[in-house]
Design brief:
The chain is an alpha/beta fold. The protein contains twelve helices and twelve strands. It has an eight-stranded mixed β-sheet, with helices on both faces. It has a two-stranded antiparallel ribbon with strand order 7-8. Strand 4, helix 5 and strand 5 form a beta-alpha-beta unit. Helix 1 packs antiparallel against helix 10, helix 5 packs across helix 7 and helix 9 packs antiparallel against helix 10. The radius of gyration is 18 Å and the shape is globular.
């Protein structure tokens, strides 16, 4: 049976590729819905972008809900400097024809987790954790119903990409991240330490383009745009492809290696706000609360990604 998932996202070119990977894998994953959150760009754009991506995949039947438009406690920080003014700059995509679902994403999360058998739904957050934390606060009974949370966010060895200490998704809403990491739900984390080893090099991007399909071309143009910022920033041969690692883990967990450790979220310090304090070396007695990934088979990851995108 396919694994039931809900993708919580703020597309973002890399979010878009993650959504395509999930929708290209119906024998493995059943996407119950997509919940949009403010992050890379404001909510109106992330909700629109999620629908654009579903249409690229030929899946206008997927339910897309708009969620929280701001973090729990602070002003929204966005990343147009990375993703462009639309969040999906690169290829010229038409306005989506599929509708945005009525109702709030948080209510969809709660209602779905209550309706599905306990322990069968995996949550896949690709952006700030505002929607997930709000659902957990509003309906504490769903905590025991979540099978697992597999998320992209945080860092240990790579430290930060939006501040010297913090990764963007966690930094945007550290209070939400703290709620999620303290929830007791099994958590798998794809930090910058992994995603910075999954670089879209020239040959890997050309593999998308050479698929000869419209989705292949669009993915290549997204990553062309997305990588211009990170290549200049890091001086690397390509840009990290962050969010698809979440979906790849569900499809092929043996591509990744990590440690079950304690991860705490810094919310008090102005200097290190949003930092994921990962006890990688197990130097404290704090109980492990997350499987924190540290390595990836990058060639295997891109082989999987290219093979699945070719199906669309």
């Amino acid at each position: 049976m396919p694994r039931k998932i809900i993708i919580d996202t703020d597309p973002g070119q890399d979010d878009a590729v993650a959504i395509l990977l999930a929708l290209a894998s119906p024998e493995d994953l059943e996407v119950l819905g997509i919940t949009a959150v403010a992050g890379n760009v404001p909510l109106a754009l992330t909700a629109k972008n999620a629908r654009k991506v579903c249409e690229v995949a030929g899946r206008p039947d997927v339910k897309v809900y708009a969620g929280c438009d701001r973090p729990l406690a602070h002003t929204l920080v966005t990343a147009e400097h990375v993703h462009g003014k639309t969040g999906l700059d690169g290829p010229d995509l038409p306005e989506p024809e599929m509708p945005l679902q009525q109702g709030h994403a948080v209510d969809f999360l709660i209602n779905t987790l209550r309706a599905e058998p306990a322990g069968t739904v995996t949550l896949c957050p690709l952006g700030p954790l505002t929607n997930i934390a709000t659902a957990l606060q509003k309906a504490p009974d769903i905590v025991g119903r979540v099978r697992e949370i597999v998320l992209m966010g945080g860092a240990y060895f790579q430290v930060g990409n939006i501040t010297p200490a913090a990764e963007f998704n966690i930094y945007v809403d550290p209070e939400a991240a703290e709620i999620v990491f303290k929830s007791g739900i099994p958590i798998v984390v794809m930090p910058l330490d992994v995603t910075h080893k999954a670089l879209v090099t020239g040959p890997r991007n050309e593999a998308f383009r050479h698929l000869g399909t419209e989705p292949g071309r669009i993915v290549a143009e997204w990553t062309d745009f997305f990588e211009r910022f990170d290549k200049e920033k890091y001086g690397s041969a390509g840009a990290p492809l962050h969010d698809p690692t979440v979906i790849a883990y569900l499809l092929k967990p043996d591509l990744f290696r990590g440690r079950h450790i304690n991860v705490e979220i810094e919310t008090g310090s102005a200097l290190t706000r949003g930092m994921t304090v990962a006890d990688w070396w197990r130097v404290t007695d704090r109980a492990p609360n997350a499987l924190f990934m540290g390595d990836i088979d990058a060639d295997g990851f891109f082989a999987l990604l290219t093979e699945r995108i070719a199906r669309l």
